[in-house]
Amino acid sequence: GNASVRKPMGNPDPGGDMGGISIWGRLEARLQSCDLMIICTLNEGTWPQVADPGPWLSRSMRLDAGMEPPERLHGLAAHDFEMAMGNPEIILAHSMRVGTSPALPSRLLERFLAFMGEPASAQMRLRGHKWLRAARNMDRVSEPVPARRPTPCPPAELRPKSISITEVETLIRSPYDLYAKYVLGLKPIDPLGEEMGLRERGTMVHEVFARFVARGHDVNDKRAQEILDEIALEVFSLLDQQPDQRDIWLKRLHKSAREFLEFERLRDGQIKKRFAEIALRWKSPEGAPELQLRGRADRIDARNDGTLEIIDFKTGSVPSKAEMMQYMAPQMLIEAAIAGTAGFKGNPPSLTSSLSYIKIGSGYKPFEVIPFQVPDQMSINDAATRMLDMVQARAATFLNSDETIMSARIMPAANQKWPSPYDHLARVDEWIEAGTENGAGEQE
After folding, report:
1. What is the mean pLDDT of the chain?
2. Measured between alpha carbons, how far is residue 233 from residues 226, 239, 248, 256, 263 in Å?
3. Segment among 103-117, 142-156, 189-203, 314-328 with least mean pLDDT
4. How far is the C-alpha of 240 from the C-alpha of 235, rounded, in Å?
5. N or C: which terminal CB in the chain sees fewer CB atoms within 10 Å?
6. CA 124 to CA 132: how far, in whole Å?
7. Strands (E), 315-429
């Protein structure tokens, strides 16, 4: 191809040919003239192109059939080269590499330079060096320096003193997210026109089971399955504009609901009262670092023996056994600690005898009960008390101090599949790969 520069006539049109610059093919260049002709891709195999007779006819077969020999392309390429050289000012350009392989200059260029002689060829190359330097300078940058992990250290009075129970894990793993949310006041906004996905499905599944319990339905009722299906249809009416997706989700939930009722009926004789989506509140004692925790538990059941069973429904992944035992899945332990110290509406402070995740899936296990794992030789209540103490110590360090940096990803989850809403703000993708002292490779 050829690039040409023509003298603009009057003021160039901003939306036109960009001030007289045109890109022509060889046929167009043969028929027109310009002030400066840049003859590009002067590489062997490109100009002239390979004289390939094709996969079907050999050279002799083409000639016998009265067709032109493939070498005619070479003569045509030489003709086009000669015509292009007739412009007032010319730049001859070829590539040193094509893809990952070295490239050879065109035989046309080599013969032209040989014809001109070494002194003239050297002068032409010298004049071309200024264009090479200009092109290289466009790509020249200073040594790239990866972004450093952000080090915000706001005054203690600006740091949040009230966080949700689910944000306790954020406090442990990435205090920067709390800084962005509460100190900077930044909250992620869902993309416009986004269709309902797994997150919304999880919310609706929680709502179905919560409404069944909150409305006081009996799990032993012969119509219990039918009632659950009716509640599901009511909740999933948000998907009426997407009937195919709604029907698929309802069918999957029907299987989970059947096993939910079987689970509840087996333990019904041990349960005194069920509480769904119950609000929990806790405030640090007098003299301790200021901290308030708030949230809702999916389910808390009061047993006949006076203890509590806490259940958390999961439509996504469940924390691993190691994360539970290493206090890296704090939510259920915090709920047990609050229920044991502050109680909740409708029930006085009580010890917890059982913590369980219920995995609501869409595969061959639509309903799976996964007991929470506490460290060996510890009771649930001892582990809950220790978890609350750890949270208070963490809050004293990151939420009640003027000196502690609210770093990002100080203890990232090993199996984290989705980025945090604030990873882009923290420029995590830039420093997490650096492997330096500022990278995420070193967990603090």
Report:
1. 87
2. 11, 10, 12, 14, 22
3. 189-203
4. 10
5. C
6. 13
7. 352-360, 367-371
Which run of H or E residues covers position 173? Answer: helix 167-173
pLDDT at position 243 over 60: yes
pTM for the predicted model, two decimal places: 0.68
Residues comprising the chain, all counted: 444
How remote is the C-alpha of 63 from its chain's centroid? 60
> How far, in Å, CA of 424 to CA of 169, rounded?
19
Neighbours of 364 (CB within 10 A): 6
Task: Give me the residue label for tokens 């070193």.
Answer: 442
State how beta strands 308-314 and 292-303 pair.
Answer: antiparallel
pLDDT digits over 152-168, tens only?
999 999 999 999 999 99
Instruction: Indicate whether 175 pLDDT > 50.
Output: yes
d(CA 338, CA 190): 32
State the amino acid at position 408 in one-letter form.
A
- Selection from 113, 90, 78 nearest residue 37 by Cα: 90
pLDDT digits (tens, 9 = 90+) for 54-95: 788 887 888 888 888 878 888 888 888 988 888 889 999 999
What is the rounded distance in angstroms from the CA atom of residue 113 to the CA atom of residue 222?
97
The pLDDT of residue 416 is 67
The sign of the torsion formed by the CA atoms of 75, 80, 82, 83 equals positive
Structure tokens belonging to residue 188: 């992620």
Burial 310-348 (b: 16+ CB within 10 A, else e): bbbbbbeebbeeebbbebbbbbbbbbbbbbbeeebeeee
